[in-house]
Amino acid sequence: MITLLEELVDRAAGSYVERQDLNKLEHLMFAWAERKEVYLTVQAKEKEIIDRAVALVSASPGFPKKAANDAMMTRCRRDMTLALRYYALGMLLQDKEMLKERFIYWQKNILQAMDLDKYQGVNYVLQALYVELTEEQADLLKPYFKLGNDMISGDQNPADNN
């Protein structure tokens, strides 16, 4: 939404907004109530979602059970919480560009610096969403989580996700 509004203002530049731009904006406004409700539900259920995601990570076959310690699990929980909040904001604002610029590029750089190129935490949070939310609510969030996963794992070019 922020990106669309910025583009709309730039394109108008002293003229009236084009009808097609007004239609895009109207579509965003029409979907606002549903997205706001999902965002508020995620906020209210954040602890349950993250607890479930951490449990999924801990139970995964590749999880280093012996190497796991409190500091590692605290960091994992913190990273998943931050991701959940940003992806939910991206969904609320229907703004993948904002999500990429403000979070995903940063997250990808951090994970690469830590040699965690194939980080799967986002997938565990998405799995938890499908348990803690309705399928329709989780479906609204899924494209934003897919974008993050694809960019972090290098499966797609970021331009393919617009």
Describe this structure in words.
- The chain is built from 7 helices and no strands.
- The chain starts with a helix and ends in a 9-residue tail after the last helix.
- The mean pLDDT is 84.
- With 162 residues, the chain is mainly alpha-helical.
The ordered string of helix (H) and strand (E) elements is HHHHHHH
Largest sheet: none
- The average pLDDT is 84
Cα radius of gyration in angstroms: 18 Å
Could you give the distance between the termini? Answer: 13 Å
Unreliable stretches: none
Beta-strand content: under 5%
Shape: elongated
Helicity, in percent? over 70%
Task: Count helical runs.
Answer: 7
- Protein structure class: mainly alpha
* Quantity of strands, as a count: 0
Keywords:
single chain; 162 residues; mainly alpha; elongated
Give me the secondary-structure topology.
Layout: H1 2-12, H2 19-44, H3 46-59, H4 70-93, H5 96-113, H6 121-132, H7 135-153
Helix pairs in contact: 2-4, 3-4, 3-6, 4-5, 4-7, 5-7, 6-7
Q: What is the gist of this entry?
A:
The protein is mainly α and 162 residues long. Helix content is 77%, strand content 0%.
